[in-house]
Design a protein that fits this description.
This protein has two helices and six strands, in the order E-E-E-E-H-E-E-H. It has 81 residues and is mainly β. The chain has a single domain, classed as Cysteine Rich Protein, CATH 2.10.110.10. It has a three-stranded antiparallel sheet with strand order 1-5-6. Strands 2-3-4 form a three-stranded antiparallel sheet, with no helix packed on it. The radius of gyration is 13 Å and the shape is elongated. The two termini are 22 Å apart.
């Protein structure tokens, strides 16, 4: 996954429409069949798959922003460390 050297990105929670084709998750590569999905870094994710690379917290739960640094996806706390 090619990420920029250091940046902040928004996270969107989207409701899955029942009449649309399931999207693939960027984290696990399986189809997203849940009621909701996350969109971040121009990709789609299960809520459980979009996690901080350091502390493993679910980024959809801790806010609406994720951070990238050295090809890692991070929460704000770990990004600032």
């Amino acid at each position: 996954m090619a990420l920029t050297a250091s940046s902040a990105q928004g996270i969107q929670m989207l409701s899955v429409q029942p009449d649309t084709k399931p999207k693939g998750c960027a984290g696990c590569n399986r189809k997203i069949k849940d009621r909701y999905l996350l969109k971040a870094l121009d990709k789609y994710w299960h809520e459980d798959c979009l996690k901080c690379a350091c502390c493993d917290c679910r980024l959809g739960e801790v806010g609406s922003t994720l951070y990238t640094k050295a090809n890692l996806i991070l929460c704000r706390r770990d990004y600032l460390r």
